[in-house]
Hints:
- It is a single chain.
- The chain is of the alpha/beta class.
- The chain has two domains: about 5-215, P-loop containing nucleotide triphosphate hydrolases (Rossmann fold); about 235-330, no CATH class.
- It has helices at about 45-50, 75-85, 90-95, 100-110, 120-130, 150-160, 180-195, 205-210, 230-235, 240-245, 285-290, 320-325, and strands at about 5, 15-20, 35, 65, 65-70, 85-90, 165-170, 200, 215-220, 225-230, 295-300, 305-310.
- α4 packs across α5.
- The protein is globular.
- It binds adenosine-5'-triphosphate.
Amino acid sequence: MHLSYPARGSxxxxxxxxxxxxxxxxxxxxxxxxxxVGESGCGKSTLAKVLVGxxxxxxxxxxxxxxxLWAMPAAERRTTLxxxxxxxxxxxxxxxxxxxxxHRLLRDPLDVHRRGTPAERAARVRELLDLxxxxxxxxxxxxxxxxxxxxxxxxxxxxxxxxxxxxVADEPTSALDVxxxxxxxxxxxxxxxxLGLAMLFVSHDIQTVRRMSDRVVTMYLGxxxxxxxxxxVTGHARHPYTRALFSATPGLLAPIxxxxxxxxxxxxxxxxxxxxxxxxxxxxxxxxxxxxxxFQGEAGETPGGHRFRCHHPVAAExxxxxxxxxxxxxxxxx
Length: 334
Ligand SMILES: Nc1ncnc2c1ncn2[C@@H]1O[C@H](COP(=O)(O)OP(=O)(O)OP(=O)(O)O)[C@@H](O)[C@H]1O
């Protein structure tokens, strides 16, 4: 699946294109949580937006239970997205209408999709508050009268109102106080367990992604470069970029130094030829400039297995310390 945006500020007639997703294909199994990691601008949010139908891919298909979302008539697409996918944004203050009390915010999806009688809708609102651990009296409050954590609980309850099979959570805790982040993450873990939800979980916080996910997907300049079971991704990732990303996460592999990467992240409007990571990779050679490798790896360990796209993958048993030594230029070595 591909998605290009016209670059902000570029001409209307022949805009420069930002290649936000390039052949980014992903399957999420029922009940599975897939976490997405990568530097800012690598396409994580765009992937989330495509899954929930906010953005339409420039080419490729989005299949919900095997049916092509964008081949459906518009009304059916709206119903499918409204009832099968829940969305939790970063900032509940902007995601919730400030003028509506909580019970209206929670009832709204039920009204729009005509679920149940008025009495059943009112009962569902009470059930939803209970589900996300909010007391009944919150129903009459306006979002502005709640704390950030309570507002995010309301946003999660609203996303779950129609019992979706998939919850897409894009940075769901990054706008919250550090003290309430853990509570919201625990709530999401409990809900996943209780409701059998599948989840796409996007976050800058690599530790959190690893904790929340069954499988971790690494993105680089719009491409998925690796998919690995969460328990393998820290020390046994095979793509040099994934290893470098995890080595730079404070506290995860401490006291190991991060693997040094050369230069800045290239622009998504003019990505390098071949493997886009090659300009920063200590293993890159001519082959990497010529072609982007296909996926290789072991299928079957988890849905999607452990796959990576690299001409010179890291050996599974290579330690991060060994990689730091390889990637440090000779003149900078101690
Ligand atoms: N509406 C838009 N118009 C033009 N370019 C966009 C638009 N939205 C995103 N982009 C660009 O697409 C690329 C991918 O952006 P995206 O927001 O998906 O990345 P991200 O990994 O989620 O970043 P972050 O972690 O900072 O949110 C970036 O180069 C970004 O500047």
